[in-house]
Amino acid sequence: MAGHRGSRRRRAGHGEHENEERWLLTYSDMITLLMALFIVMFAISNVNKSKLEALRQSLEDAFSGAILPGGHTVRQVAPPSRTPAPPQPGQAQSNLVDNEQNRDEIEFREIKRRLDRYVRIRHLEGQIRTLIDQRGLVIRLLTDRILFDSGSADLKPGARPILSEVASMLKLRAGLPVSVEGHTDPVPISGRYPSNWELSTARAARVVRALIAYGVPAQSMSATGYAWLHPIASNATASGRARNRRVEVVLLRSGRGTASSGVGPLTSSLRVSITSGAVPLR
């Protein structure tokens, strides 16, 4: 029994001795790492001057454009400016045109609103109509019984209040050219005028004189006769021919010096149609 206890004491003492020496392993690892660190720091501190000079020269060649043919030196390229470039002359002109077109569109719609109100108040729905096409503000006056007698270019008394209102609408957009266009049907005429050409031109000129008298600037006006060449309805019926006998007043958009014949797609300008009470517009 005594020998057995003694052997257990020796084994316990030997285990305690091994545990007390484990810290030596950690300490030796730390010393090894520190030595490696000092070696690396020493190596870094000893710079090879020839290799450093070669590195400096290669970087300078790269940034000066000398390595690749046709390269541009970085040091000679100015940094991008943060100040926006001034608009080019063409761009400024384009912006001006866009602004004028937007102004035309807004004011044409306002004129259309006022004319619609005038039509409603005076119960002229069958005689005056407003819409928008590509030319500008167009006033279509069907001549029968409202503006002129058959074959005549003398204004009837009932036409004057309508032309006065039209003139006041045109003056809302002063400065734009106004083209007045006369149109007839293809039926030959007799009497004062030898043909529909002379009649359509005389009626356009008479409307121009009336608008000038109501305050539209004379220098902005022009008159043209188109006879029967540009109908808006079929000439096969009496009602269609009545619609084709008309005078159109065109307040042109900005930048358009003359009015077109009225033929073509209708897109965006203001058209005002004045017709006889017997012929409704569609």
Structure description:
With 282 residues, this protein is of the alpha/beta class. The chain has a domain at 95-274: OmpA-like domain (60s Ribosomal Protein L30, Chain: A). Helix content is 45%, strand content 12%. The protein has helices spanning 2-20, 23-45, 49-63, 89-121, 159-170, 196-213, 238-244, and strands spanning 128-131, 136-142, 178-183, 221-225, 246-252, 271-274. A 6-stranded mixed beta sheet has the order 1-6-2-5-3-4. The radius of gyration is 48 Å and the shape is rod-shaped.
List the helices and strands and how they pair.
Elements: H1 2-20, H2 23-45, H3 49-63, H4 89-121, E1 128-131, E2 136-142, H5 159-170, E3 178-183, H6 196-213, E4 221-225, H7 238-244, E5 246-252, E6 271-274
Parallel strand pairs: 2-6, 3-4
Antiparallel strand pairs: 1-6, 2-5, 3-5
What characteristics describe this protein?
single chain, alpha/beta, 60s Ribosomal Protein L30, Chain: A, 6-stranded mixed β-sheet, 7 helices, 6 strands
Question: Summarize this, please?
Answer:
With 282 residues, the protein is an alpha/beta fold.
User: Which percent bin holds the helix content?
Assistant: 40-55%
SSE string, helices as H and strands as E: HHHHEEHEHEHEE
Radius of gyration: 48 Å
Summed over residues and divided by their number, the pLDDT gives a mean of 76
Shape: rod-shaped
Task: Please summarize the sheet with the most strands.
Answer: 6 strands, mixed
Strand percent estimate: 5-15%
Task: Please tell me the CATH architecture of the domain at 95-274 by its name.
Answer: 2-Layer Sandwich
Q: Helix count, per DSSP? A: 7
How many β strands by DSSP?
6
Query: Unreliable runs, pLDDT <50, ≥5 residues?
Result: 259-269, 276-282
By CATH, the superfamily of the domain at 95-274 comes out as OmpA-like domain
Distance between the termini: 132 Å
Name of the CATH first level of the domain at 95-274: Alpha Beta
- Tell me the strand order in the biggest sheet: 1-6-2-5-3-4
